Amino acid sequence: MNGFKTTMLLAALTALFMALGFTIGGRGGMVIALLVAVGMNLFTYWNADRIVLSMHGAKQVDGASAPEFHGLVADLARRAGLPMPKVYVIDSPHPNAFATGRNPEHAAVAATTGLLNMLTRDEIAGVMAHELAHVRNRDTLIMTMVATIAGAISMLANFGLFFRGNDNRGALLATVLAVIVAPFAAMIVQMAISRTREYGADRGGAEISGNPRALASALAKLARGAAAVPNPVAERVPAAAQLYIVPGLSRGGDSLFSTHPDTGNRIAALEEIALAMGQSAPRDALTAPRSALAADAAAARPSALGRRPAPRRSTSALDPNRRG
User: Fold this and answer.
1) 68 has catalytic annotation
2) Residue from 68, 123, 131, 198 carrying the catalytic annotation
3) Which of 2, 34, 61, 168 gives the lowest tally of CB atoms within 10 Å of its CB?
């Protein structure tokens, strides 16, 4: 059902894009706009991961620079039946994570140092399992395509008056309506697809990690933390909000104006999954001291990448902004 809904929403977004092109430039405008969109999608298809990771200043880590975090992702990827993705850490106090890449063979997952310092190992496992579920479901490509088409619609709408400003009154009115309505409709479709996919990734993450309550606990912590700590990337590029496991700010409820489902609803759904799995209490699988992964956050600072981290005092390992 989610696949059908996504297909219908993508079709609606494409039809909206073509209609806007026709409104602005007739049949010729429709064809030109469609060619531009195809070009943008092809470029994004091959370069989406590099664009997104560069935007966030993400730094790749491996078993030497971040052994606990990298090892955890490797274990989860094996459970999910996925190739090992590239693993990145973003030096930012804003607690969040995302996945990117055109397919499972070219996937990457990233988490901020704020997230690694805030959550327990079980909770981090739940979050990264959620991101791997996005990869397995090929959500990363779908969301990139939607963002690209939505961006193209907004671009055309912004230039609509310039293209048709000297035309007759009826055409001018149609263009004004396109300028106002098209970006708004594109935003709604984009957000609707994002919300649909988040529920599916929550379920997939619970299955991969085997610990839905740990993911639920992580969502509660991250929702509070992400709302309290600014995210400069999302402020510069609002469309980036759909990438994250939780939004920076929540409007409450599953409204059409939210990029993500309501966190409370997601937690309730995960609790139902836990009960269906026969879990009466949180599992202790994958449990390890919190400081181990927080130490990886410290090791993943730009200055430490590419070399094995030096021994750290336990008092500083929890803080990614301090050197041990």
Assistant:
1) no
2) 131
3) 168
